[in-house]
Amino acid sequence: MSNGADLGRLVGYQLKRVQAALRSAMDAALRPHDLTTPQYACLELLDQRPGLSNAELARGAFVTRQSMNVLLRNLEDAGLVERPASAPQGRALPTTLTAEGRARLVAARGDVLEIEQRMTAHLDAEQADLLLGHLERMTDALDPRPRDSPTLT
């Protein structure tokens, strides 16, 4: 007989299962667009807030700053984003989408939204709003970062 908790009744465990399934579905959907899930997240963030710094993008895409450096270099080499050679002020290099980056994002977005719709198809609008509110409060309870950190919406 186990003394442990029933994993199926733990919210954290269920959230991790959803996250893993979502990541797998997104990776598969984005592969034909020659994008990874973190790259897609970065392009979405830049579409919503052009000029974000490496640190802001890393927080919003849930990767380390070092990983974001590599990710941005790869996106830059692919012609999807551009950064100035030197920072206009301070040390942060503001990043923006290129026309090709915006086109790739638009092409991939429909596939990502289809996954979102499939994932939430059993929820009506009120249930979806309620779920989003609960998830936001759970994040607030655990996350010490200020509320103005960039996130995908």
From TrEMBL:
Q: Which organism is it from?
A: Microbispora siamensis
Q: Which Pfam families match?
A: MarR_2
Q: Which residues form a coiled coil?
A: none
Q: Does the keyword Cell membrane apply?
A: no
Task: List keywords of the entry alphabetically.
Answer: DNA-binding, Transcription, Transcription regulation
Residue ranges of every copy of the HTH marR-type domain listed in the record: 8-140
- InterPro entries with a match to the protein in the record: HTH_MarR-typ (IPR000835), WH-like_DNA-bd_sf (IPR036388), WH_DNA-bd_sf (IPR036390)
Q: What is this protein called?
A: Transcriptional regulator, MarR family protein
Q: Which SMART domains match?
A: HTH_MARR
